[in-house]
Amino acid sequence: MDALEIKDLSKSFRSNFLLKRTEVLRDVNINVKIGSIYGFLGPNGAGKTTTIKCIIGLTTPDSGTIRLFQKAAGSVAERNKIGFLPESPYYYDYLTAGETLTLSGRLSSVSSREIRKRSQRILTLVGLEGKEKILLKKFSKGMLQRVGLGQALMNEPDFIILDEPFSGLDPVGRKELRDIILSLKNDGKTVLFSSHILQDMELIVDDIGILFNGRITKEGKLSDLVKDAVKHIEVVVSGVNEAAVKKGGYDGSESDGKLKARIQNHEELNRFLNFVEKEGGKCLSVSQVSHSLEDLFLREISK
Q: What is the C-alpha to C-alpha distance for residues 150 and 138, in angstroms, rounded to an integer?
C-alpha cells in the first residue's frame, strides 16, 4: 500500500507580463510506500518544491491526481496526516522553542493538555530538551531545523515531508538529523524528503525519485538502481609489480606488497587473470564496484 500516489501531475505558471505559460511539471508519477523513506532528488529548478506544494495543497496542479493513503489528498482529513518542514521556514524570533510548538499544536487543533504532553516528547526526540525556554533568535541554524522538525510532528502525522532538511547543517547536525529521520521510520512513519546532500540521502533512503526538467527520469529502490550499475571491477593480486601490469596495458597501483587493478568488463578480467598467472602472480580477490547515488544522479541529468 502506498502512502503517496501521484499520477500524471502537471503544473505550469504564467508571468504577469507574458501570456506564455512555463511548464514546471510534466506528467510526474511518484509512489511512496508506507513506512519507507523516499528521497526526492533533482537540481535547482527541477520542480521538487512545486511538487511538494501540490501535495500539501499550497498550489493547484493543472492536471493529474494526488492520493494520500488511497484517498484524495485535497480533503482536510488527509492533509491532517501530513507534517511539513519547508526549505526556508520563517520563525518568530521572540517566541521560545516551547511556545513555537504550542502555537503549532493550536493551529492543528490539539488540546492544551495534549500539547504539553507532545511537546516534551518531541523536544526530547529532536534534541532540544532543556532548551524550550530559549528565544529562537538565539538559536543556530541546526537548532532552528530541530524546531522546524518539531513543529512538523506536533499533529502526530503519518506522512512527513521535509524540503531540503540538511541545508546549512554541519556534519554533526546532519548525522543527528539522519538519526531522527531513521527513528521516525522505526516508529512506522513515512518520510519524503528532498536534498542536495547526496551522501546523506544514500545513507538512509529506501527509494528515490530523480526529477529533471519537470519529469521523473528514474524511480525505484535505491539498492536495485545502484546495484545494477557496475562502475568497474576491482582485482587485488600479489606477486606482480606495478611496472609489469602497466606494461601489459592495465591500470593498477601497488601498496603493501599487493597490487590493485581496475578492470572495465568481464572480458578484460579474463585476459588480466591470464596475464597475472603467466607473470607468476596470484589473484587475492575480485569485486564489483557499483555506481554511487551521485554517479546515478549525474548520469540521469546529463542525458
A: 17
Q: Please name the amino acid found at residue 299.
A: R
Q: Domain 2-226: which topology?
A: Rossmann fold (3.40.50)
Helices (H), the chain: 48-56, 76-79, 97-107, 112-125, 141-152, 171-186, 198-204, 222-227, 242-247, 266-278, 293-301
pLDDT of res. 42: 85
**Fold entry, domain 229-301:** Alpha-Beta Plaits (3.30.70)
List, for residues 110-137, the tens digit of each pLDDT value.
899 999 999 999 999 988 988 989 999 9
Query: 242 by DSSP, 3-state: which?
Result: helix
Could you tell me how far CA 88 lies from the centroid of its own chain? 17
Burial 56-82 (b: 16+ CB within 10 A, else e): beeeebeebebbbbeeebeeeebbebb
Name the DSSP letter for residue 50. H
Residue ranges covered by each domain of the chain: 2-226, 229-301
Per-residue pLDDT tens digits for 178-205 = 899 999 999 999 999 988 777 778 889 9
Cα dist from 51 to 139, 164, 201, 261, 292, whole Å: 30, 13, 19, 44, 25
Show the 3-state SS of 122-184: HHHHCCCCCCCCCEHHHCCHHHHHHHHHHHHCCCCCCEEEEECCCCCCCHHHHHHHHHHHHHH
Cβ atoms of 34 and 217 within 8 Å: the answer is no
φ/ψ region of 177 (left if φ > 0, alpha if ψ in -120 to 50, else beta) reads alpha
**Cα 216 to Cα 90: distance, rounded to the nearest angstrom:** 30
What's the burial of 261, exposed, middle or buried (CB within 10 Å: 0-12/13-18/19+)? buried
Is the pLDDT assigned to residue 229 strictly greater than 60?
A: no
- What's the alpha-carbon Rg for the chain, to the nearest Å? 25
Average pLDDT (57-80) is: 88
φ, ψ for residue 180 (rounded to 5)? -65, -45
